[in-house]
Please model this.
Amino acid sequence: MYRETTDCYGPAAGDNIVTFGLSPRSPMENALTPRQAEILEAIRTHLAENGRPPSRAELAQALGIASTNAIFKHLATLERKGAIALDSGHARGIRVRQEEGGLPLVGRVAAGSPILAIENLLGRYPVDPDLFRPRADYLLQVKGLSMRDEGILDGDWLVVHRTREAKSGQLVVARIGDDVTVKRLKVRGRKAELIPANPDFRTLTLDLDRQALDIEGVAVGVIRNLNARGAA
Model:
């Protein structure tokens, strides 16, 4: 499996640049455990990919849980913590509740974890997701200078629309093995290139017949705190 050797997961760019300071919102009162966060992420993923909630059996299969009784217990806990709402009268009666306003900020992504897993989040910030097109789903803290020449700098926040699909030419958040990176995607047949915007970094070339490339989202904007940068 290909692994990037420098500037793992960092910068990218979008059309919108917002420049102002932001204050984090307070965290959820009842924080989820890593297992509960994994189950919530599985529900969101199924919704994004299939347009409907998973059944209990589908959720158990996706998570490798043999007993649907265990799924019922986990779902009940998620409902009690305010993450979901359940409708016991329907086989797919799971609704993800709208979280506190704003967008979650993702820091360094732990190897193998869902990108919005609790352990990856640095907080929640009052950014209106409807300012961006397509609608924003999360923020990703930029680390490194691999997209410098597109105006994306270390410490910026990339605004990301969550999707599993991307078109050639888009700026994407991509997962390669255990690493997450942000680059411009170019697809030529069964070859994909993840192209930096800095000559100090090399293009990542993947053979899609042999190497997995998972899209975690496309860039729709950038947020920069000018006060913080001026103090550096």
Notes: Residues 34-50 form the longest helix (17 residues). The chain has two domains: 16-26+100-231, 34-96.
